[in-house]
């Protein structure tokens, strides 16, 4: 009888242990580190006060950002880091491949409809737009995702962590070479991660291969699936003169100048 009880207890303990082992990867992954920087807008139509960063959760359960994660940007030498945002709350949805949108206050005037971001970010300095690096990282500085731009002009770090819980964001922990161009800031475009969201096939390889400028107008998406088209400010052209007035009006102005000069001479000689 004692032997039977002991065997039963062993079987129960083994089953519980196996269950815990099966749960460990899911528990470890249910955090925030399986995240990609999907889109970056450095400005709209030359307005660098209008900026956005769009993240995407690479699997479900990656919304536990509160007090654990931040966004940081570095200059062309990989120096002078600036914290753009430290997350102080969690986005509502933790669905797989769901977006998380950070915007500057000036972005609302540059989207249709006016954008509703999930978080407010500080602006990337204009001097960092030609070459620099943007990271999604822990508040302690452990980098889980990085995008760099500026080609050979960028000379800073390109490394990221290779994975947590057995699952990596980057294939080899190095995101070099950087994207060859600058962050888009004079158009309606964004720098966008090209691979489709997928935990195994959507890994980062390097910024040059992974990122491309959107073919046209960028579309931002927030955590509640709101969609906002980036719209450059309309510059009103100087109106042209219609029809015959293109010839007549300059002629009248010319006669007026001659008449004014003639009157001045008569007064001077009087």
Can you offer a commentary on this structure?
The N and C termini lie far apart (139 Å). The chain has 2 domains: 1-30; 31-230, no CATH class. It is 21% helix and 22% strand. The model is unreliable at 1-5 and 12-29 (pLDDT under 50). The protein has 270 residues and is α+β, with helices and mostly antiparallel strands. Strand 3 and strand 4 form a beta hairpin. The protein has helices spanning 2-29, 207-210, 245-269; strands spanning 35-41, 52-57, 69-74, 82-86, 99-103, 111-112, 119-120, 132-138, 143-149, 191-193, 211-213, 219-221, 227-230. The strands form 3 sheets. Strands 7-5-2-1-10-11 form a 6-stranded mixed beta sheet. The chain has a 4-stranded antiparallel beta sheet with strand order 4-3-8-9, with no helix packed on it. The chain has a 3-stranded antiparallel beta sheet with strand order 6-13-12, with no helix packed on it.
């Amino acid at each position: 009888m004692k032997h039977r009880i002991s065997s039963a207890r062993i079987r129960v303990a083994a089953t519980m242990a196996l269950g815990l082992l099966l749960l460990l990867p899911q528990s470890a992954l249910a955090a925030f580190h399986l995240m990609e920087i999907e889109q970056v807008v450095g400005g709209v139509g030359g307005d660098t006060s209008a900026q956005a960063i769009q993240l995407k959760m690479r699997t479900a359960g990656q919304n536990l950002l509160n007090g654990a994660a931040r966004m940081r940007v570095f200059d062309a030498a990989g120096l002078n880091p600036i914290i753009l945002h430290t997350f102080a709350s969690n986005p509502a949805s933790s669905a797989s491949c769901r977006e998380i949108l950070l915007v500057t206050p000036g972005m609302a005037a540059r989207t249709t409809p006016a954008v509703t971001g999930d978080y407010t970010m500080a602006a990337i300095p204009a001097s960092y737009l030609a070459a620099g690096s943007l990271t999604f990282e822990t508040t302690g500085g452990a980098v889980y995702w990085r995008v760099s731009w500026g080609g050979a002009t960028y000379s800073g770090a390109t490394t990221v962590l290779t994975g947590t819980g057995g699952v990596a964001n980057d294939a080899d922990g190095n995101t070099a070479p950087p994207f060859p161009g600058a962050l888009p800031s004079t158009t309606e475009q964004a720098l966008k991660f090209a691979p489709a969201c997928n935990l195994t096939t959507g890994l980062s390889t390097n910024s040059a291969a992974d990122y491309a400028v959107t073919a046209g107008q960028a579309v931002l998406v927030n955590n509640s699936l709101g969609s906002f088209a980036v719209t450059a400010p309309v510059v009103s052209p100087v109106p042209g003169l219609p029809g015959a007035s293109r010839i007549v009006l300059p002629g009248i102005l010319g006669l007026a100048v001659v008449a004014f000069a003639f009157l001045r001479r008569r007064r001077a000689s009087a």
